[in-house]
Predict the 3D structure of the following.
Amino acid sequence: MEIIIQPTPEAATSIAAKLIAKLLREKPNAVLGLATGSTPVALYRELVALKLDWSKVTTFNLDEYIGISPQHPQSYHSFMWENLFQHVNVAVKNVNIPDGMAKDVPASCELYEKKIKAAGGIDLQILGIGTDGHIGFNEPTSSLVSRTRIKTLTQQTIRDNARFFGSEEAVPHHVITMGIGTIMEARQNLLLAFGDKKAAAIAEAAEGPVTAMNPASALQFHATAKFFLDAGAASKLKKADYYRWVYENKPVWQQF
């Protein structure tokens, strides 16, 4: 696990965007795993500004709410088209988002896993993290070897997401999400976290024990996981000074 701490969200996002751009330039047919929520919006804006070629890129989104249509303004289908897809030359046939309106949810989840495998696996997975340590919608107590499946949101996540829906009552209680096992099979995992509210979850994920109570802690076992943090999100890390020193003293061939 590599911890990259920058003074601001903008600085951390800029570095993350450069890493993704490098992958797309080196591998035009890369497979990207994409996240939603407020955290990656600036990242997608930077990627759009870089004017990269997305024509051969395949994408798989982490999750989707169950019971709201793709046209719903708070669906992750709508989010992705508004914040990224309509601004780049991605092929519609290469865009994959879990089907929140599926009549047979388990079968739909199994098919999603098969599509990821058929695409050759995910080259780089973008992640956010919840205040309780969830990644995707893998809430605390999620199996660390779980696959794409239905999950029930915790009350904390419902409260956190109520700002998007206008009230807690309007937030769907069920979602489809990639599992921890699915995320761990990505060749790279790139997690972004900003602000003091994420500090405790980040400290537990990076420096605490690996536990289902903080699903992001599973990334300690990933060969290429990078956390991009601002000063607030890094504020409870015991080894923050060391992480900064490591990043600032990378050999030239490791810099990005």
The chain is about 30% helix and 15% strand. Residues 2-249 form a domain with the Rossmann fold fold (CATH 3.40.50.1360). The chain has one domain: 2-249. The first strand starts at residue 2 and ends at 5.
